[in-house]
Amino acid sequence: LTYIEFYRNSCVKWRFGCGKNLCLLLLFFHFNHIASGHLRYSIPEEMRKGSLIGNVAQDLGLDIKRLRSGRARVVPGENTQYTELKTDKGILTVNERIDREQLCGDVTPCSFSFEVILENPMELHQITVEIMDVNDHSPTESAIVGARFSLMSAEDLDVGVNGLKAYVMTDNSYFSLKQNSNADGKKYAEMVLQKPLDRETDPYLSLKVIAVDGGTPQRSGTVNIDVTVLDVNDNAPVFNQSVYKATVLENSPADTYVTTVNASDADSGSNSIVTYYFADHSNGQGNIFMIDEKSGVILIKGSVDYEKDKKHELRIDAKDQGGLTDSSKVIIEVTDVNDNAPAINVMSFTSSVSEDSPPGTTIGIINVKDLDSGDNGHVNCRIEQNVPFTIKSNLKSYYTLVTDAVLDRESVSDYNITVIATDAGTPSLSTKKTFNIKISDVNDNAPVFPQAVYSAPIVENNSPGVSVLTLRAKDPDENQNARISYILEDTQIGASPVSEYMSVNAESGVIHAVKSFDYEQIKELVFTVKAQDGGSPPLSSNVSVKILIQDQNDNPPQVLYPVQTGGSMVAEMVPRSADVGYLVTKVVAVDVDSGQNAWLSYKLQKATDRALFEVGLQNGEIRTIRQVSDKDAVKQRLSVIVEDNGQPSRSATVIVNVAVADSFPEVLSEFTDFAHDKEYNDNLTFYLVLALAVVSFLFITCLVVIISVKIYRWRQSRILYHSSLPVIPYYPPRYSDTLGTGTLQHVYNYEVCRTTDSRKSDCKFGRAASQNVLIMDPSSTGTMQRIQSEKSILDEPDSPLEVS
Question: Which domains does the chain have, with CATH numbers?
Answer without folding.
Answer: 39-132 (2.60.40.60), 147-228 (2.60.40.60), 238-335 (2.60.40.60), 343-440 (2.60.40.60), 453-550 (2.60.40.60), 558-669 (2.60.40.60)
